[in-house]
Design a protein that fits this description.
homotetramer
Chain lengths: 366, 366, 366, 366
């Protein structure tokens, strides 16, 4: 029952892997925006399966159709309904799964919860649901661009291969030059090689996506529960296969002392700035104008071709060898999803911050 | 504007460190529960300042007054309003902070956001706000106990001192025997020693709180955004000083391969069970009946007595030496807060799951 | 930004009169329901334009396409996405309105609010938006039928023609036998005649829709704000052209005294029942098991062919003669919309009531 | 579970008639407002029981205590927690009701819903719950005053005594000069006389409260569900004893034709204005800058001293003679409650409208 995210900028999504379409409704996009549908499609293309040998062989063009909310190329303030048709859904590939619970999948828990299971391609548990997020994120990015906000996610780790430079030193402009979406060329090659090896074995591998947001204004985030990092964590942990979230120093902060972790204030070019950025751009739950930095850990995909023991509907222990198409590593295609979710959260806070003022601004409009 | 958490079981909180009281309103507590106010007070006492030398010297009895929602000792289904008066608030201690932005505090961001700042004891950014969470959590725990759910958080790491045994091997019953709330006696001593050393220097230190939930029924969590882990992450990242959240293998899963991370199904005592629990009790965003395990990282408290550079209201760079009372490490007092937030989230999902069914059950009540 | 209604059973709608499609997402439909798409289409057909001479001549087949949430004919608990394509949209008919604000329409207020206006057919202010409501209502009705709830709206008044019998005496089974949807045959003829006369003049006329709900269980409605009548009023007042809402005795109660208005309790067939039903089936905001009765007043449609003065974009006073197709009276086509909204509200409360219990029921499922 | 109202400006209320206190939490009050607690108390005094012979003899000073959200006399953007202690609660007066269901009260429905009943003074079903609304409304009024919005409710009808002049002709400044709160002195006397007669008989009488809002800016209200009139209706129908809501022409519009009901546009003092105001200041769900006018019908209070038949706990038919103190007519004390709810709704929309814009305004603040 919780297929929506956001308060002022809100996405309600629907759709299964092998149903008629996946899609959604975007509410709260400010009116008067010259929305580029081309930009939305570009983001979808970044997430699309079949882009490289690193991802599933399912072929989908993932063409978005905007059904409402636009008039003469501009947003009207009305909800933006959209759909993306499913094309290459080979439901028969999943017939052998009808009776079987795949390890570490949603199969068992969802069936227990709902009493029914759409076993074709994982149903709504499929990562195809992320399409709606990417569309909404692409809309949000266009609004955020007006305020000078940019969002850049990238591969930080694939299996045991990790970036070595701290995030501040990375040349993020390079990250889309390779299929893994890693800003360090050498590491990108290593990561791709590892993914290839794992794929050959029919196995999968985990990873970490990092994300840097620049230009986020001071003052976003709502104390005390809806802190910037809290809604960000919520959004990230709602992505398939996400296992962990941290911002700023994250778990490393646990080993630090206050005198080393505190970000000292100074004046720089007439502005309050911090000398360091252990805080990751957020203090007291509210953005402080510095770059926002966070990381999301992903588990290795549960679908593997390696033989596994499991249990079927009737409680018999059986062997499972999955045939469905899958990604050996989610990281490359998770990068645009992480960006999309970050954009949705940030715009939501930006609009909410506008509401949170004495109404003189509005009154002057009368 | 976001001082509430939960959907079916909901806490709305209010109150500042040095105002008249902190308090809240709990909605959605099922009717007919014989609520023990004593149990609530016991939880508050676990969080109360001044319990040991490891925490701030502020003396507060933190006595809860329940104002509504109870009749003849039972909950009525009506909202439970409650307050806890502030007693030992030495607002003068904070006069020297009136003009100064403390490093890594909410001072600057909140003032920029709201145009005003209640500088006395951190105002609403103070950890005294956690009192409302602990009260609501204590109510939730009593409802959850009916379903056989128990929640146990504990110190996993303080600075560089970490538990070595995996969580499955810990004897959690021991964790309340020491002031640090660590289930490993030897490590507890080391942690306490480290906190003592840090305090002496006027510094602070970070840490990690782990949490195990037992008896959570299969089927809690709402796809696709409101996954169990997503709302749990939200709740944990809304706690003061939290920097990271992970569940199951968490960030360690990034380095693993699917064949090693997948939890194989088997039948045990007539039930579907997993052989391992890398998933931390959650699959596809929904609980699978195994123990739920998650971890929260905390930064070292920002308030330290060590001299620091900073900037004042007029943009002058100044030196700051804080006098306010503070905890050298949040971990011991964060333990009951983590439990409280976990209880709130879990009960919220439990009640929501009841709603998500065909209405025959209800109809039969007519 | 508020294109959704409902909490546990929730419709998010989108779409304009002359855009690609109108549609929506239904969340919270319980899983396991054998959903009849035919029944949904039947409800849409009741609202469809061009059914009789009493309504607009726009020809739309209003064919619903369900995009998700169904598997092998049953609901899965996942969101039900749906669209209805717009076919007969003659946008050119509206070119003459581009510069002009029509009296008592949304033209001026929405343009002032959003800075843009989709003038084609009223854009999202068009009653075509009701399509999404009827689809969601048709789903809700199927769930409610399981609990024995039936909902029946009908024409009570058209212009100066009013029903004379009290609602308890009406034979509601007759109401769908005529185009006006009035259970009194004689009055139906008078109403149809009046609508015909008004249409001939190019004018429009108002009316009242009454609604009776039978079989609603005791205990629906949430004190203190979300009373049954409060959410019902909200839902009804969100329908285009609605001007008033009342339940039970409604405005007539203002002239009554307590001794005449109170519904005395008695035992009937072993159940607590009221002797009279001035309360309209709701007491203290919660249903009492008696029939629920309410009424919704509708204004005469603002679009008329009669010449009117108005003002254009540049502030010039001009004469307006509208050519767009319109209904001379909303009542006949509002009847299925009122039923749909009542169904959405009632199911929402039914599911919420299931949540509001001690969790033993759920626990026993484990 | 629905003890809150509002989205951006939000009141969460708690408390029973004979519990420790009634109170609430106000979220979303913009920061920087010089809040007058005296003004809040003044509004409470208008609602207080025991003001005149027209109301219940219960003596309560209804003194508000603000617990948070204020610093040096200004709002901080933090939640405003408040309580009002119950003083004169003679719970014993209600002992005779313990076993009996009073006609047309919440007794039966709430007990059936919750399984428990706080019978003392109606528990939370008591109109004392309105106190929280009046406090929140008094805060909202102070914010609205900045935008030049004023709200004035008044007695339009008591039993069979009705105002004769249309609302546009009333001198609303006079309405607080008499205990009934009626702007027509002659009618005020007649109303008071009728209330006196009814009280003498131990009976009660219904009535209608009208309300006019001036200065509401163009553009408030959110299509399509959250129309201005829809949330207004929701708020009004959530008041105890409310039976109907209408705005503009309301139910009278049902008998009108479009050519007579449409509000023709004209230019007046350089502004778009309507010649008439049948619309009651709202078109397409959004305010149009004209005065907003609506009416709320109230039933006669259910508590009467007249003997009535009813049923007790064990299903026996018994006679009931109520002794509790009560108002013979809710109208005089409902007037400030209607104003409060109107203020809450209007401010909520005003803040929401601020959010609904392209973020350049906010960006310029950086």
């Amino acid at each position: 029952m919780a297929n929506a995210i956001g308060k002022m900028f809100r996405l309600t999504s629907f759709g299964e892997s092998h149903g008629g379409a996946v899609g959604g409704v975007i509410e709260g996009c400010p009116p008067g925006l010259a929305l580029s549908v081309k930009e939305i499609q570009k983001e979808l293309d970044r997430r699309r399966p079949g882009q490289s040998v690193l991802s599933t062989s399912r072929q989908e063009e993932d063409k978005v159709e905007i059904l409402s909310g636009l008039f003469e190329g501009k947003t009207t303030g009305m909800p933006i309904g959209f759909i993306v048709r499913n094309r290459d859904s080979r439901s028969r590939d999943y017939d052998h799964l009808r009776e079987v619970y795949r390890p570490s999948h949603a199969d068992f828990t969802w069936e227990k919860k709902y009493g029914v299971r759409d076993y074709r391609g994982g149903g709504r548990a499929s990562a195809r649901e992320h399409i709606a997020r990417v569309v909404a994120g692409a809309v949000a990015k266009q609004v955020l661009a007006i305020s000078g906000v940019s969002i850049c996610a990238f591969a930080e780790q694939v299996g045991t291969v990790e970036l070595e430079s701290p995030w501040q030193k990375l040349d993020l402009s390079k990250k889309d030059l390779n299929a893994v979406r890693c800003p360090d060329e050498q590491k990108a090659v290593e990561m791709a090689t590892l993914i290839g090896q794992v794929r050959e074995k029919g196995d999968s591998v985990g990873g970490v996506v990092g994300c840097v947001m620049k230009g986020v204004p001071v003052g976003l985030g709502e104390p005390v529960f809806d802190r910037f990092q809290a809604r960000l964590a919520f959004a990230m942990m709602s992505i398939n296969a996400a296992k962990g979230f941290e911002y700023g120093e994250g778990f490393a902060a646990a080993a630090m002392q206050g005198s080393g972790h505190n970000d000292v204030w100074e004046m720089r070019e007439g502005k309050m700035r911090t000398l360091t950025n252990h805080s990751g751009g957020i203090q007291g739950g509210v953005t402080n104008g510095e770059d926002i930095y966070f990381r999301v850990a992903f588990k290795p995909v549960s679908t593997i071709a390696v033989k596994q023991r499991t249990v079927d509907h009737s409680g018999n222990e059986v062997e499972l060898e999955a045939h469905g198409r899958h990604d050996p590593c989610v990281v490359p295609r998770a990068v645009p999803v992480v960006e999309a979710m970050a954009a949705i959260v940030t715009l939501d806070f930006l609009l909410e911050a506008q509401a949170c003022k004495l109404p003189d601004v509005y009154a002057s409009d009368k």
